[in-house]
What we know:
six-stranded parallel beta sheet, globular, two-stranded antiparallel ribbon, alpha/beta
Amino acid sequence: MNLNRTPILGIPIDMITKEDAFAVFEGLMERPGFDMIVTPNSEIVVNATEDAQLAALIEKAGLIIPDGIGLVYASKILGHDLSERITGIDFLTEILGYLERTGKSVYLLGSKPDVEGRGSVAELAANAMRERFPGLIVAGTHHGYFGQDDEAAIVEEINASRADFLCVALGSPKQEKFMDKYRDAFTSTRCGIGVGGSLDVWAGTVQRAPEFYQKHGLEWLYRFIKQPSRLPRMMKLPVFMLKVIAQKNRRNK
Length: 253
């Protein structure tokens, strides 16, 4: 499938429906080598305008889905009109269903280590995923509290697990940069996605925004209400919209 990508602040976003995005994902799983799905929101796009490495790896990703409602609004301002928002956590759920149906496996990497003997967030998420998808094969898990010296051993562990798909929850841009750094080192893993805090939601350690917030693209507001310490990150949203308006004005001159 030929992807139609539109630039928002110079960062490409796939103009694609959820159904077509999933068809692209299925194609990535059948191709040799490792490819990546990135899920930009307004904050990630702003960061990518200031981080050439992040911008470059987004551009070469196999699939770039518009996770944030801000991207949909921006596309309308710029006259591109993205058809819909595709949230990373919902797309991951679709992926897990595919993996269960096809007998393929997933490796979960990231989030907090074992707390009070309950297991790491990745382990708790794996249990919840198996409960939702009883036939799902979780090839392995590893927490996200590791240093650069540990990365090679973790990649070896992922390869030894023969996982088909990789789910990385290290926060952006660390999760994307990790996958890009080792893309040529993965052996059986065909595709990976950075999911931020999604493993915490699966594990039950963080509550996802209620349906009202989800439907109206206000999950960012719910997270801010729950975590006021996110204010510095939230400030990227007005910065993003101001930059989009400035981009439109430059084009109209």
